[in-house]
Specification:
Strands 3-4-2-1-7-9-10-8-11 form a nine-stranded mixed beta sheet, sandwiched between helices. The protein has a six-stranded antiparallel beta sheet with strand order 13-14-12-15-17-16, covered by helices on one side. A two-stranded antiparallel sheet has the order 5-6. The longest helix has 20 residues, at 84-103. The chain folds into two domains: 2-220, 3-Layer(aba) Sandwich (Carbamate kinase); 300-416, 2-Layer Sandwich (VC0802-like). 38% of the residues lie in helices and 24% in strands. It has helices at residues 14-27, 42-55, 64-79, 84-103, 109-117, 119-134, 161-172, 200-211, 244-253, 263-268, 322-334, 360-367, 389-398, and strands at 2-6, 32-36, 139-142, 177-181, 184-186, 192-194, 215-220, 241-242, 273-277, 286-288, 294-295, 300-314, 338-344, 348-354, 371-385, 402-407, 411-416. By secondary structure, the chain is an alpha/beta fold. It binds adenosine-5'-diphosphate (ADP), aspartic acid (ASP) and magnesium ion. Magnesium ion (MG) binds at residues 7-8, 198.
Length: 417
Amino acid sequence: MKVFKFGGASVKDAFGVKNLAHVLKTIGHKDTLVVVSAMGKTTNVLEQIISEYFNNKHQTPSSLLPLKEFHIKIIKELFNHEKSSLIRLINEFFEELYVFFKNNKSPNYSFVYDQVVCFGELLSTTIINDYLNHLGFTSFWLDARECIKTDDYYRAANLDWEQTQNLIKEKTKKKSLIVSQGFIGSNSDNFSTTLGREGSDYSAAIFAYALNAESVTIWKDVPGVLNGDPRVFKDTQLLNQISYREAIELAFYGASVIHPKTLQPLQRKEIPLFVKSFENPTAAGTKVSKGKALEPHIPCYIVKKNQVLLCLSSIDFSFIVEENISYIFNLLHEYQMSVELIQNSAISFSVCVNNKYNRLEELVLVLRSRFNVEVTAEVDLYTIRHLDEKANKFIKKTKKNILLEQRAQETVQFVVS
Ligand code: ADP
Ligand code: ASP
Ligand code: MG
């Protein structure tokens, strides 16, 4: 089997869906499992719908209707007419959502989030699968919730590998072309769960692992993995080959072209990962596999925007040592801050965090009971790997705004205001 993954950007409109079919025709689609994300910005829209629901004391959100119209418009453009059987399916999904909002009694935000947000992927794959069959492919729609089994840590669920592997094998048996959803799964009570934002790459790796796939290809709006995000850096270059280890490092530091969780399952079975352009499917793209760390060996630039720099110092001039540090880390874990960079001295401790779950204020309040806390919001964290002269020049140019800098062998990281 081969596993393909198409992200939200690749299927943001009818043209994108047609292009997906074109990629399958061009590359071949025998024994292929296609993992697809929600169309365009659908997940963000669903997130807004959920906050509307919570802000308006659990009233059914009015913005469900424009989302339904967005999907129906795509169907009309794909089929050049109203395809009533498919529109009926879409209506049924929205009906399910309305019923959920009407009956829900749970005040648990994360639980509600997962029950709602999974519909983005259910809608996109239903449309795409139907369109592929309409074109003459024999494609089978698989509800990923029937095989991706997780715990109930809603919004960032952890996989039950054993069960998931067995179910994937069972549900895909004797099927040549399968369309399924990225990002979503279900727990032992069969409630929907999700694997974390941008988690569809990870889903592709999970399917590939279970199926002992020969490869995974993630189709992107870029030619492959570049040595920097082209939206941020000028003159970026394509990386032809990257080792698993290098790819994990790049993804972990924030190269958002690959979700960091994707690499580990693939590396375990040495399944190669290709990152290719959906606009130019026959081009080589990037291959992530065992082998050379990086080819060509050039500096890689990564930036994580909108981070928070916390500078803590002791109130009474006492040292910040193991006990304080472990207290601080426990709090960071409790308030779900992901730690991006740390630096400590005798009486101070600086940490750059990602305030993903908006819990910074609560955290700072607790920290202030024991430390002086300085908060600098909206900082950018740069990471450069494999430094050379040019990269050093880039750092010098940025120097005046650098709040914190750290160098290890081949990696430099700095926080910029
Ligand atoms: P998907 O549609 O699969 O969710 P994403 O938008 O998450 O795709 O990922 C593709 C984007 O990742 C590109 O448009 C690019 O701006 C960004 N990106 C960040 N870092 C890199 C990099 N090192 N190489 C290529 N693209 C990168
Ligand atoms: N649709 C989800 C998101 O936007 C998952 C993904 O696209 O990977 O985060
Ligand atoms: Mg994405």
